[in-house]
Amino acid sequence: MKPAVSSSSLHPRNLHRNGYDFAVLVQAHPALADYVRPNTYGDDSIDFANPQAVKALNHALLRQYYGVAVWDIPKHYLCPPIPGRADYVHYLADVLAAHGHAQQVRLLDIGTGANLVYPLIAAHAYKWQCVGVDIDAKALRNAQHIIETNGLQQQISLRQQPHPASIFKGVILPGEQFTVTLCNPPFHASAAEAQAGTQRKWRGLGKRPPQALNFGGQANELVYAGGEAAFLQTMITESRQFGKQCVWFSTLVSKASNLPLVYRELKKVQALAVNTVEMEQGQKQSRFVVWTFQQ
Predict the structure, then answer these.
(1) pLDDT tens per residue across span 162-202
(2) Where do the coiled-coil regions begin and end (predicted)?
(3) pLDDT value at position 284?
(4) pLDDT of res. 136
(5) Are 19 and 99 in contact (CB under 8 A)?
């Protein structure tokens, strides 16, 4: 098998900077072999429009690089790209290290999903203690199964958010302390907008769009009333109330056009320090914003 082209734009500690070595990955997860084919450049790859192929790739990556022997997600749940998720964790670790907060890190993952990818990466790469939060009971049952079958109960725990409109309220307990939060917010304002986004994604992959909402994501993973901007506004407003219980807050901002709103809201709640970390995964540009209320 011929390895895929490297992606040196990823974080220096990202284990996927040199592309996917499919020979190694197939050895780790033999079921992946059914989906590996040469692409138009002659490099081994998979059909990224095929949800089963993407799930098999993720399983192989998690098994080979993050010690996750057993992993699966229910049909139609979000199956995120591992390299991009790892980049967020690595750059977040840099922020913590730069401010002397790299030891005994306690992470709160907002919207952990059925896939549990952020805690799995953070627990393995940095030995962080992780708490994953979601509103979806089915997603949490699947995530709990991943935790238990991989013996990760001492590093990762889960909580269900009882109030779907809230972010931190109801899940950060009185007197509890976290080092940092992370989040990949839902970025569509409605199911119709999510459907349109899915169709653009399929067309970008050169495939005919399906009628289903999304080949990778439930409505609650993709949709929030008011879209990403409203979600970020709620998150920032609530973060002020928990500024003494969490050292750093962070969130991905999918749409760069939402950054002015984020900065305006952070100024309004009097965040003491704000930083934007730019990331690049191949052709994709992304970023996360991190802030604190502590000196």
Answers:
(1) 998 899 999 999 999 999 999 999 854 444 444 444 444 44
(2) none
(3) 85
(4) 96
(5) no
Phi, psi of 252 (to 5 degrees): -70, 145
How much is the CA Rg of the chain, to the nearest whole Å?
19
Confidence at residue 281, expressed as pLDDT on a 0 to 100 scale: 85
Predicted local confidence at residue 282, as pLDDT: 79
**Residues of the chain scoring pLDDT < 70:** 1-8, 187-224
Domains assigned to the chain = 76-292 (3.40.50.150)
66: which strand partners? none
Tokens 């989040």 sit on residue? 183
3-state secondary structure the chain: CCCCCCCCCCCCCCCCCCCCCHHHHHHHCHHHHHHCEECCCCCEECCCCCHHHHHHHHHHHHHHHHCCCCCCCCCCCCCCCHHHHHHHHHHHHHHHHHCCCCCCCEEEEECCCCCCHHHHHHHHHHCCEEEEEECCHHHHHHHHHHHHHCCCCCCEEEEECCCCCCCCCCCCCCCCCEEEEEECCCCECCHHHHHHHHHHHHHHCCCCCCCCCCCCCCHHHHECCCHHHHHHHHHHHHHHHCCCCEEEEEEECCCHHHHHHHHHHHHHCCCCEEEEEEEEECCEEEEEEEEECCC
Find residue 134's DSSP bridge partners.
160
